[in-house]
Design goal:
The protein has 2 domains: about 220 residues, Rossmann fold (3-Layer(aba) Sandwich); about 130 residues, Beta Barrel (OB fold (Dihydrolipoamide Acetyltransferase, E2P)), CATH 2.40.50.100. About 25% of the residues lie in helices and about 35% in strands. The two termini are about 35 Å apart. The radius of gyration is 22 Å and the shape is globular. Helix 2 runs parallel beside helix 4 and helix 4 packs parallel to helix 5. With about 375 residues, it is of the alpha+beta class.
C-alpha cells in the first residue's frame, strides 16, 4: 500500500494530499496543469521535503514529520522517468543502460528484470549503439524506462511520459508500458493530464485539483462519479467495463462480450475467445429510455437502474446508472430529464451508441 498524507509548499503553491492506493497496481495521478501532480511526485521521490505528514510504501516509512524520518532519495529505491527522459546525450543507449545496471548491482530486492529481457520488451536491440541525442522522443522514453527499471526500483514514477509526443508515438509508448505492466509487475505511478492514458493504464486513480485530492479509488469507480465530469471534461467523461470475449467478430457481425450486467457488442479484431477485455464507454454516448426500444440501430441496450442524478454547470445532467454490478455514466440534457421524468431508483434502459475497446495488444479500436 502507498499511504500518503502530506502538506507541502513549492513557492507560492500549496499541496495537501491524502490517499491510499495498492502498490501492486498502476496508479494514475490525474489533474490539469497546475493541479500539483509534479509536486506530489517530487515529494514521493524525496526531491521535495513535505512540511508535515507521512509517506509510507508498504512497511517502509519514507517520510514522517512526527517521527523525524526523511529517507534520502538514493535510499528510497524509486525509479523516476521524466517527461524528456533526461538521458546522458553524449553516451550511447548501451552506456545509458549500463548506468542503471551499475545501480542494480549495489541494491538488493526491488523489481528485478534482466537487461536482455528489457531490451526485448522495449524494442531496443537496434538502438544500442546510437547516441541518445540522435533518438526520437519515443525512443528516448523507451530507453529511460529501461534504465529506470534496471536499477531495480520498488516503485516507478512516470511524470507525463507521453507529453510532447505525437499521436503515433504516444500509442507506441502506451503499448510498451502495458507490456511492462504484464511482464514485470512493477508498481507504477503515472502522472498525466490526459484521460486516455488514465483509462489505458491505471487500475487506481487519484484526482488532483488546485493542490487538493478531490477523489481517489479504483479507476472505474472514480470515472463514474458524476461530480468528476467538470474535471474530466464533458466529452471525455467515461465508464470502464471489464468483460470476457464470448464470440469474436465475423464479417459484419460484432464480437460479443459478457460482463456482469449482460452482453456488449464490440468491434474486436482478432481477439481470441476467452480474452479479458477492457471497454471504455463515454458518457456522451449513452442514452436513456424508460421502455425497452424495439426498433433501433443501436446494438447495445442494457437494463439499468438510476442510482443518482447530478446537475451539471450547463444544460447537461449526469445520470449514474447501475448495470448489474457495473456503474455506467450517462450525460443527457436537462430537457430529456424532465420529459422522461427520471428519478433515482427508477428502472430504465441504457442505450450505448458506440464504445472503445481498450486492450494491451490492440490499443483503442
Amino acid at each position: 500500500m502507498l499511504d500518503v498524507d502530506i502538506t507541502c509548499r513549492a513557492g507560492a503553491f500549496r499541496l495537501s494530499a491524502r490517499f491510499e492506493v495498492p502498490t501492486r497496481q498502476t496508479v494514475a495521478i490525474f489533474g490539469h496543469s497546475g493541479a500539483g501532480k509534479t509536486t506530489l511526485l517530487h515529494a514521493l521521490a524525496g526531491v521535495l521535503r513535505p512540511d508535515a505528514g507521512r509517506i509510507m510504501l508498504d512497511d517502509t516509512c519514507f517520510f514522517s514529520s512526527a517521527n523525524q524520518i526523511d529517507v534520502a532519495i538514493e535510499k528510497r529505491r524509486i525509479g523516476y522517468v521524466f517527461q524528456e527522459g533526461r538521458l546522458f546525450p553524449h553516451l550511447s543507449v548501451a552506456k545509458n543502460l549500463d548506468y542503471g545496471a551499475r545501480r542494480q548491482r549495489t541494491l538488493a530486492g526491488g523489481t528485478s528484470v534482466s537487461r536482455p529481457e528489457l531490451i526485448e520488451l522495449l524494442g531496443l536491440s537496434g538502438l544500442l549503439a546510437r547516441r541518445t541525442r540522435d533518438l526520437s522522443g519515443g525512443e528516448r522514453q523507451r530507453v529511460a524506462l529501461a534504465r529506470a527499471l534496471l536499477a531495480r526500483p520498488r516503485l516507478l514514477l512516470l511524470d507525463e511520459p507521453l507529453a510532447g509526443l505525437d499521436a503515433k508515438r504516444k500509442g507506441e509508448i502506451l503499448r510498451y508500458i502495458e507490456h511492462l505492466q504484464k511482464a514485470t509487475s512493477v508498481a507504477m505511478v503515472v502522472v498525466t493530464h490526459a484521460l486516455e492514458e488514465v483509462v489505458r493504464l491505471s487500475s487506481h486513480l487519484v484526482v488532483l485539483d488546485a493542490g487538493t485530492v478531490r477523489k481517489s479509488g479504483e479507476t472505474r469507480a472514480v470515472l463514474a462519479t458524476p461530480e468528476m465530469v467538470s474535471l474530466f471534461g464533458q466529452g471525455e467523461a467515461s465508464t470502464l467495463i471489464s468483460g470476457t470475449l464470448l464470440e469474436p467478430s465475423h464479417g459484419h457481425a460484432l464480437a460479443r462480450v459478457a460482463f456482469d450486467g449482460g452482453l456488449l457488442h464490440v468491434a474486436c479484431g482478432d481477439c481470441p475467445i476467452g480474452s479479458e477485455l477492457r471497454i471504455r464507454v463515454r458518457a456522451s454516448d449513452v442514452s436513456i429510455a424508460t421502455e425497452e426500444p424495439q426498433q433501433t440501430s443501436i446494438s447495445n441496450i442494457l437494463a439499468a437502474r438510476i442510482v443518482r442524478i447530478v446537475a451539471g454547470s450547463g444544460a447537461d445532467v449526469q445520470v449514474l446508472l447501475q448495470v448489474g454490478q457495473t456503474p455506467l455514466l450517462a450525460s443527457i440534457t436537462q430537457a430529456s430529464l424532465v420529459r422522461l421524468k427520471l428519478v433515482a431508483g427508477m428502472p430504465v434502459f441504457a442505450m450505448v451508441k458506440s464504445i472503445a475497446l481498450i486492450d494491451s495488444t490492440l490499443g483503442d479500436a
